[in-house]
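Task 17 of the worksheet. Students: predict the tertiary structure of the chain below and write it out as structure tokens. Keep your answer in the requested format; marks are given for formatting as well as content.
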Amino acid sequence: MLPTGSSVAGEKAVRSHPPGRTARRRKRLRPVEDDERLTSRERQVLGCFAQGQNTAAVARRLSISPTTVRNHAQRILAKLRVHSRLEAVARAYAIGLLSVSAATPEPRAKGARE
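Model answer:
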């Protein structure tokens, strides 16, 4: 690639962005398609993630195995087209799948452990 301002046969090389960097485009958040809708169980798991619970805590709370929680998590990530649980929660808030009240942790009894 020619440095900015170099010429080839009388024409200047023009760059739209600095060398070594690619142009970034903002992703538009679009609603989840019908075939990508989360199941009720996936929404429950996502709500638990929004409360900051890890895999083991979600498994205990929903009475399912940690492997099942991980499977739900992978399907959630794929359906929401994100790469992490944190991104999934952020996207769910952004497109209206989660509300603040849905992610508010339930009060625990005194001395209860999770």
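Marker's comment: The first helix runs from residue 40 to 50. The mean pLDDT is 77.
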